[in-house]
Design brief:
Distance between the termini: 12 Å
Number of strands: 26
CATH superfamily of one domain: FAD/NAD(P)-binding domain
CATH architecture of one domain: 3-Layer(bba) Sandwich
Helix content: 25-40%
CATH topology of one domain: FAD/NAD(P)-binding domain
Radius of gyration: 23 Å
Strand content: 15-25%
CATH class of one domain: Alpha Beta
Shape: globular
Largest sheet: 7 strands, mixed
């Protein structure tokens, strides 16, 4: 990796005159304020959407970001500040520039409001959080990430239309396997030459008639080992290590199951299903007295919903604070940890295909569950004294998500629809058992699936299933074919988030730096397809590869860096 490159690379590569031309070139059409056009229409407000938009402008194209979200950045600005990176040498281009800008922010003493810079431990993900040698920082506060994304937007003079929701029933107009325009529920129409679906859900992809899959494939579908049901996997600590009775009245099945336990029997390992890994909010907490808000009690709070956690505590479990990962200024990125934690297991199966209204209900249910969980641990007498007293030192960070009651705006959609594209990435790619064609980026993180269901074992105890973590021996390539649909389905759409991948391979690909990498590569390909007037499936890979490397993307690593 050329470290000097990152220190001298300017963030905006086009001249002010060119950017101004692009800005006014993508405004709404004269005579109709609800009709807009640009070379590239990006649907979504995720980190991938922002990076794709920046690349499009810097490559000389007009672009519009049509975002259902008001705040940009998705999970990267929504609480996931303890970045899952893997091998950082794989992270190039504008993705690395994002982390460089975070580094610049924390080099300013004014950034350290609630603790001294010297007090921050600077450790995380097996490496330093603040990498001075490479001028990057990988662990950060939500509002810092949000500002970096907004800086990308303002510096590149990108037009973003916020709170615009795709009309999923009749909002996509296609002709000859190409999207001509999309319409949002507000009545706005967006026409373009190329379209990028950068949502976590893949709504544009689905509405455009592109094939996709939801759930786990059987191992036999792609010749995998870790797909489908994995009842014997114990790769993390997120399972019940003690025999915990699952019934409301212990020992009496007739009393019914405790809240959150499925009555469905477990099926054979490697069996496919339509279930998906659990969601949660990545919570930003603070233990600074002047910057914390007491955990609120939900209106529908029911302590019986957390009886299973009380029994886990009774069995001696004390790892409650295991994923209170520290980020700057005495805050956390709090994730799921242990057998009963932040993940709302089994309560999201219908989310990918659900209506907007139903999705809002699911999101609210997740919020209520986690708020109730926090309140329970901080206040219920069933909780061990040492845990409760420590928990009472924590609260929601007062200076984060201030327009949302200090609660994260983005639910962690770990998995939703996954496209069935030109190429399907599988665990065989991740584990270097196959040669990946036409790389457009790299991944390196473990194939990480959170739990998918909570059930009763044949012995009559509660257990979790679906938690898998298999580490690749080296970084792996991600194929261009995994971000484009089949030619006959759509020729001017790219999908850098809901990529064409098996469930278990997606467990590695689904990391925020990778989404940014693939977002930039998608924009580069869209620009190239416009330049040569080709379908995205017909771009000569040699031409695409040259442009990817020119823009700083990492497509392979020297043996010394693997």
């Amino acid at each position: 990796m050329n470290k000097l490159f990152w220190s001298i690379r300017t963030p905006v590569l086009c001249s002010l005159v060119a950017v101004t031309f692009l800005y006014f070139g993508c405004q709404n059409k004269q005579g109709n304020p609800n009709e807009y056009s640009a070379d590239i229409i990006i649907y979504g407000g995720t980190s991938a959407a922002v990076i794709a938009a920046a690349e499009a402008v810097q490559s000389g194209k007009t672009v519009l970001v049509v975002s259902p979200d008001t705040h940009l950045g998705g999970l990267s600005s929504g609480g996931l500040g303890y970045t899952d990176t893997g091998n950082k040498s794989t992270i190039g281009g504008l993705s690395r520039e994002f982390y460089h800008r975070v580094w610049l922010h924390y080099n300013d003493s004014a950034a350290w409001k609630w603790q001294k810079h010297s007090e921050y431990g600077n450790k995380g993900q097996g490496t330093v959080a603040m990498d001075g040698e490479n001028r990057t920082m990988w662990i950060f506060e939500p509002h810092v990430a949000g500002q970096v994304f907004e800086d990308f937007i303002s510096e590149n003079k990108i037009t973003v239309l916020r709170n615009e929701w795709l009309d999923r029933s009749s909002g996509v107009v296609k002709k000859n396997a190409k999207i001509k325009s999309i319409k949002t529920l507000s009545g706005k129409m967006f026409s373009g030459k190329m379209f990028i679906d950068a949502t976590y859900e893949g709504d544009l992809m689905a509405a455009a008639g592109v094939s996709y899959h939801v759930g786990r494939e059987a191992c036999s579908v792609y010749g995998e080992t870790w797909n489908g049901v994995q009842a014997d996997a114990r790769h993390h600590g997120h399972f019940f290590k003690n025999q915990i009775d699952p019934y409301k009245t212990p020992g009496k099945p007739e009393s019914g199951l405790l809240y959150g336990i499925s009555p469905e029997p477990i099926v054979a390992n490697c069996t496919g299903d339509t279930k998906i890994q659990a969601y949660c909010f990545r919570l930003c907490m603070s233990n600074h007295h002047d910057n914390r808000v007491a955990f609120p009690k939900p209106e529908n709070y029911d302590p019986e919903n957390y009886e299973l956690l009380a029994r886990v505590f009774d069995a001696g479990w004390r790892e409650w604070f295991g994923k209170f990962d520290l980020i700057p200024n005495r805050k956390t990125d709090t994730n799921n940890h242990g057998p009963f934690s932040m993940d709302y297991i089994g309560m999201n199966y219908d989310y990918p295909e659900a209506s907007y209204e139903r999705r809002k209900e699911i999101i609210k249910a997740h919020e209520d569950y986690q708020k109730g969980l926090l309140y329970f641990v901080a206040n219920d007498p069933r909780v061990p004294k040492e845990i409760q007293e420590e928990m009472q030192n924590w609260g929601l960070a007062k200076d984060e998500f201030q327009d949302n009651g200090n609660w994260p705006r983005q639910l962690y959609i770990r998995e939703s629809r996954r496209m069935l594209g030109v190429y399907v990435s599988t665990e065989n790619d991740v584990l270097a058992k196959s040669e990946v064609p036409s790389p457009v980026g790299m991944g390196s993180y473990a194939m990480d699936s959170h739990n998918i269901q909570r059930y009763v074992t044949s012995d009559g105890y509660v257990q979790n299933e679906g938690d898998v973590g298999v580490h690749p021996q080296a970084p792996y390539a991600i194929s261009y074919g995994s971000i484009i649909p089949k030619r006959e389905e759509c020729q001017n759409l790219l999908v850098p988030v809901c990529v064409s991948s098996s469930h278990i391979a997606y467990g590695s690909i689904r990391m925020e730096p990778v989404f940014m990498i693939l977002g930039q590569s998608a924009a580069i390909a869209a620009c190239k397809a416009i330049d040569i007037d080709h379908a995205v499936q017909d771009i000569p890979y040699k031409v695409l590869k040259e442009k990817l490397l020119e823009r700083g993307q990492v497509l392979a690593l020297p043996e010394s860096e693997k």
